[in-house]
Design brief:
Helix content is 11%, strand content 34%. It has 8 helices and 32 strands. It has helices at 2-24, 39-47, 212-218, 229-232, 240-243, 495-505, 513-516, 575-579, and strands spanning 61-63, 66-68, 71-73, 75-86, 95-101, 111-117, 122-128, 156-159, 190-193, 200-206, 221-227, 244-252, 283-286, 289-290, 293-298, 300-307, 314-318, 324-329, 332-340, 343-345, 350-356, 364-369, 388-398, 424-433, 439-444, 462-469, 475-479, 483-491, 534-537, 541-548, 568-572, 583-586. A 7-stranded mixed beta sheet has the order 14-13-12-16-21-18-19. It has a 5-stranded mixed beta sheet with strand order 1-6-11-10-8. Strand 2 (66-68) and strand 3 form a beta hairpin. The protein is globular and about 65 Å long. The two termini are 31 Å apart. This is Multicopper oxidase LPR1. It is found in: Endoplasmic reticulum membrane. Belongs to the multicopper oxidase family. Multicopper oxidase that may play a role in the maintenance of inorganic phosphate homeostasis.
Length: 590
């Protein structure tokens, strides 16, 4: 076992050296060799932007079905990716962005919100109209889609969706403008989304190999809702264009000319000229506006809050002390609403909440963020610009409100504890560093994305995954296709001994993980107790997760061949980690 591990490490070192040598022959675009911008300049630009002067916008809505008589029927949509300019703030010039839309004129940051209906399949042709070169720096020394004839590779993943593997947006299924060049796993221009899962909140975003962090930073993201009136309407939650709103939160930094900033120099340039382990912006945007303002009446509002940041965690609260009533998490409702004063969202997580402004004792409230970065032990945000997200101006007196906060929601949210015979896996998160402690890459189970799949669950089954975090950071683990629910978070006792063994053997069983995972346990937040597609993995702990490879509300198997190529993946949703290369293949078996 030791000799095999030594061989693996030697091969890994050789691969890194070869990659760096190849990168040294790569011609970089002008943005990639630009003079580095100092952090103080980015902070000064952010500080110059007055808060709460821009109104919170809402994105255009596209319906993923049509009505024919009294019947809902499928539709075919065409949505493109375009380079355009977006006004992030009153005092910033228009910013070049990559965004989704039905045309270049209607494309927005974020993209249009797609509203689908459960059980009505949707077909989307995704088109790439992006230019020959990226507007942000990239780094070919991480596993990256590299076209030979120019163009920006892109591919779309509907995050949280249950769909065939050919429509998953494989990192290897990328394509450039007009499908001029395609990746090795590209097979089709039109994706099929069956919408057969429980009603809830999803989102779509780019997933191109090694470019996810840059493509999302540029703006390739948008919201997606699956509705089911039989479940949605009886709860009488706030509804309509005014009282049911998205809050898509993403941090960004801006150069003095208003362009988006992304680092052009890596933390270890001799290995990765551009890649850094996390991107943290100096300003907070919501729905594409920097620190916006929303006018609200004294009534209940529903907010579908998505953390679309590359790496930033959010710990949200309201300055006037109003609570959140959480009704859903990621793509599923809860069994009952949860009242809480704070909500922690990792990148890619969604909280579906109700805020009742009728009980406010103030006429103004700020949405605050207290999450340090990196999370959980990094730089504090409290008392800084990054501690503020947006504001609400609460107008007038009491108004009529026929919405409610329901007493009960759905009965499929609760997880059934796994039987002793349940297939169990150990998943280990590693970070690799230089002798001085600088991060160079991150792997799952010590393996690359290109290595053969070791997670091969049977379609229609449920498994128990013990995810062990041997890094200093919290990681949002995202599962394609499968739905997850954490059931236990246990501290690793004798951590250094276990860590030393794992770096030698890379085998949790041989390193006696059951003797180490015996420390204190952390509570799982009540507002996360439902079927999710993102689960936070605490550093120095083992998080046990029930993973269902089936439709959770009906307990049925998938009505499509989930075993087909190109398969699926699971990965960390800190995009800088995913790109380099905390991502592994997931191959379902019949």
């Amino acid at each position: 076992m030791r000799s095999q591990l030594k061989l693996h490490l030697m091969l890994l070192f050789m691969a890194v050296v070869m990659t760096v040598m190849e990168a040294q022959t790569t011609t970089y675009s002008a943005t990639q060799i630009s003079t580095p911008v100092i952090q103080q300049t980015l902070q000064q630009v952010a500080a110059s932007l007055q808060m709460y002067v821009d109104a919170l916008p809402q994105m255009p809505i596209i319906y993923g079905y049509s009505v024919r008589g009294n019947t809902l029927v499928s539709v075919n949509l065409t949505i493109g990716m375009y380079q355009t300019k977006w006004k992030f703030h009153r005092d910033l010039p228009p910013t070049p962005v990559f965004v989704y839309g039905t045309s270049a004129l209607t494309a927005t940051f974020p993209g249009p919100t797609i509203i689908a209906r459960q059980g009505i399949p949707l077909f989307v042709k995704w088109e790439n109209h992006l230019p020959d070169q990226h507007i942000l720096p990239t780094d070919n020394t991480v596993p990256t889609a590299i076209p030979t004839r120019g163009g920006v590779p892109a591919v779309v993943h509907l995050h949280g969706s249950v769909h065939p593997p050919q429509s998953d947006g494989s990192a290897f299924a990328w394509f450039t403008r007009d499908y001029n060049e395609v990746g090795p796993m590209w097979t089709q221009t039109t994706y099929q989304y069956p919408n057969i899962q429980p009603p809830g909140n999803l989102w779509y975003h780019d997933h191109a190999l090694g470019l996810t962090r840059a493509n999302l930073l540029a703006g390739l993201l948008g919201a997606y809702i699956i509705e089911k009136p039989e479940i949605d309407l009886p709860m009488t939650l706030p509804s309509g264009d005014v009282e049911d709103l998205h809050l898509i939160i993403a941090d960004r930094s801006f150069n003095t000319d208003g362009t988006l900033y992304m680092n052009s120099t890596g933390n270890v340039p001799s290995i990765h000229p551009q890649w850094q382990p996390e991107y943290f912006g100096e300003a907070i945007t919501v729905n594409g506006k920097v620190w916006p303002l929303l006018n609200v009446a004294r009534k209940r509002y529903r907010f579908r809050i998505l953390n679309a940041s590359n790496a930033r965690y959010l710990n949200l609260s309201l300055s006037n002390g109003l609570p959140f009533y959480v009704v859903g998490a990621d793509g599923s409702y809860l069994s009952a609403p949860v009242r809480t004063s704070t909500i922690v969202l990792s990148p890619a997580e969604i909280a579906d909440v109700v805020i009742d402004f009728s009980t406010s004792t103030t006429s103004f409230a700020e949405l605050l963020n207290s999450a340090p970065y990196p999370f959980p032990t990094g730089t504090p945000t409290v008392g800084t610009l990054l501690g503020k997200v947006m504001a609400f101006k609460i107008n007038g007196g009491q108004v009529f409100d026929n919405s409610t906060i329901p007493i009960k929601e759905v009965n499929y949210a609760n997880v059934t504890m796994p039987e002793p015979s349940t297939k169990t896996r150990y998943i280990v998160l590693y970070e690799y560093t230089t002798p001085s402690g600088q991060s160079t890459h991150l792997y799952i189970n010590g393996l690359r994305l290109e290595d053969p799949a070791t997670e091969t669950p049977k379609s229609g089954t449920t498994e128990l995954w013990h995810v062990i975090n041997l890094t200093p950071d919290n990681h949002p683990l995202h599962m394609h296709l499968g739905m997850m629910q954490a059931i236990n978070i246990t501290e690793l006792v004798g951590y250094q001994q276990f860590f030393g063994c794992m770096t030698q053997l890379n085998d949790a069983v041989l390193c006696n993980v059951t003797d180490h995972a015996v420390g204190k346990t952390l509570p799982i937040p009540e507002y996360e107790k439902t079927w999710k597609n993102n689960v936070k993995i605490e550093p120095g702990y083992m998080t046990s997760i029930v993973v269902a490879f089936k439709i959770v509300d009906t307990n049925q198997s998938y009505p499509f061949d989930a075993t087909a190529q190109p398969g699926y993946v699971y990965h960390c949703h800190i995009l800088d980690h995913e790109d380099n290369a905390m991502i592994r293949p997931l191959k379902l078996l019949p």
